[in-house]
């Protein structure tokens, strides 16, 4: 069985290093959610009856998924020990980095440069008759703004991935009518108690 994602050390530097942040999310999703079919197949036990040579002499007309459903306790174990803990780690990272993105950033190395560029842009003389492009000015965005945009995108990706994983899990395990978020929220409540 796969292992849940490990919790990275949460610091503002981790969040602002968008390569490390994206790599963590990509690896975590790839290990658990993107390979959900393989993870669920790993829960199946080999044939209980052993190999029957006569089974190859006749054509099997049963659907390919016949006998591929999992035992409820296997599904619950996978959800409790692997899936939900991985989702929790990713949720914690996304929540923390979203908080960093909305906080003031006194350590922004580009803040002085942005202030200089802004003051130069205000002092510039614009004559659109001579140069129609002279009024253009595209200020650099602060790294908190860039991080906030990344967090919005990653939350949308996370939502899609969870819905896909949950639908495959429901298909193989015959689970309840709870949505992925509802089931995950219930699990988090039980973990806090």
From TrEMBL:
Location of region: Disordered: 46-72
- What domain of life? Eukaryota
Q: Which Pfam families match?
A: MIX23
| A GO CC annotation given for this chain | mitochondrial intermembrane space
Cross-referenced InterPro entries: MIX23, MIX23_fungal
This protein is called Caffeine-induced death protein Cid2
Q: Which family does it belong to?
A: Belongs to the MIX23 family.
